Amino acid sequence: MDLFDHASQKETATLAPLAERMRPTTLSEYLGQEHLTGEGRFLRRALESDQVPSLILWGPPGTGKTTLAQLVARSTGAAFETMSAVLAGVKDIRETVARAQDRWKLNRQRTLLFIDEIHRFNKSQQDALLPHVEKGTVTLIGATTENPSFEVNAALLSRCRVITLRGLEQEELVAVMRRAVADPKGLGGKVTVEDAALEFIADAAGGDARRALTALEAAAAHGGTMVDRKVAEEALQQKLLLYDKGGEEHYNVVSAFIKSMRGSDVDAALYWMTRMLEAGEDPVFIFRRMVIFASEDVGNADPRALGVAVDALRAFQLMGLPEGTLPLTQAVTYLALAPKSNAVIAAYAAVREAVTKEGALPVPLHLRNAPTKLMKSLGYGGGYKYPHNFEGNYVPEDYLPDALRARCFYTPTRNGFEAELSERYEALQHQLAARREARDGREPGEDG
């Protein structure tokens, strides 16, 4: 580094926003996330033993994901490479991996690759990372505000440890701002900030430390040497809607939205929907939750509900905003007022439990495919009855493995259209039970 570079760095440090200047440089300066960095906790133990695996940091904005990645690199002595998934491509990944390979060959130095917004990488970009993470050429730390179970492919996810960061509590945000007020890198004690102002800013920040420090800096510039609550309110102009697209309040509002629809309270559902929209939520996220709801909470009580949710999404994609709020509102009102049934999700849970407990049970012989003479001679496909050859296109038959023959996984409700399905289901089960009793040589009803 020459004199000009050094001067440039000093100037950048002076001109950088308060949130950047106050970025922690040691784990002791890092506030919040005690469930990860506290004594005896996973991340602290990993750092102390210098055995940090590849990680996916999942949490709302301003909770310290980038800072945590930098602290990991500094504590392990690894070279720190960073890229944004918004701007980077496969070529950038290959170049970074090549540097990591050279670094290891020449200096035996490991490379930590931090990828911000990793959920924005497409499948081919994630696949390009996979072999190098698997071999340990790079230790990956990906940061995301989205659920990695949905946004990161399973192969890459299985090679990483997912750790969840939470939005900071009010007292933690106040502590972060107090440090910034006193620290020479921050406001250097030149400004007095009243507790009421700090608490107001912390509430408005919604768990986001970066937002809190940015607001503090604006208030200090607005109020001079004294910042009280009135100055903080004027600097922020208005209190922000308490809704962070990735934080705890985000999940609280989404939860209220879903539970209002589930409880058939159309007015409350519309309120929470509008809260999300006005706070800047991506409407597609709301539609995705509604499509899930249509199967999970309405199900076959009104099979049209799923079509309504999907059609509303398609209509929104054609219209965009603001007109797209119309199909969104239409779908919310329909789902909230539809008859409810959770029989679909309950059925899947019951079947999954049976599969997990019983393992891979053999397919009954009469259901097996028999493309060869040998397989036919072994009884594959023997005795199979083709339903379309029988009256009503139905013949009582056992299709489950013998160990599960008497199990019933789907329990339809008596709500809406599912009442009709329930009657048909019971009639079919009755015919099947009669067929089993006849086959087993018992009188119908003998088993109670």
From TrEMBL:
SMART domains on file: AAA (SM00382)
Keywords on record: ATP-binding, DNA replication, Nucleotide-binding
Keyword ATP-binding in annotation: yes
A Pfam family recorded for this sequence: MgsA_C
An annotated Gene Ontology molecular function: ATP binding
GO biological process terms on file: DNA synthesis involved in DNA repair; DNA-templated DNA replication
Positions of the AAA+ ATPase domain: 51-168
Regions crossing the membrane: none
Keyword flag ATP-binding: yes
Record's function text: DNA-dependent ATPase that plays important roles in cellular responses to stalled DNA replication processes.
Name this protein carries in UniProt: Replication-associated recombination protein A
Protein family according to the UniProt entry: Belongs to the AAA ATPase family. RarA/MGS1/WRNIP1 subfamily.
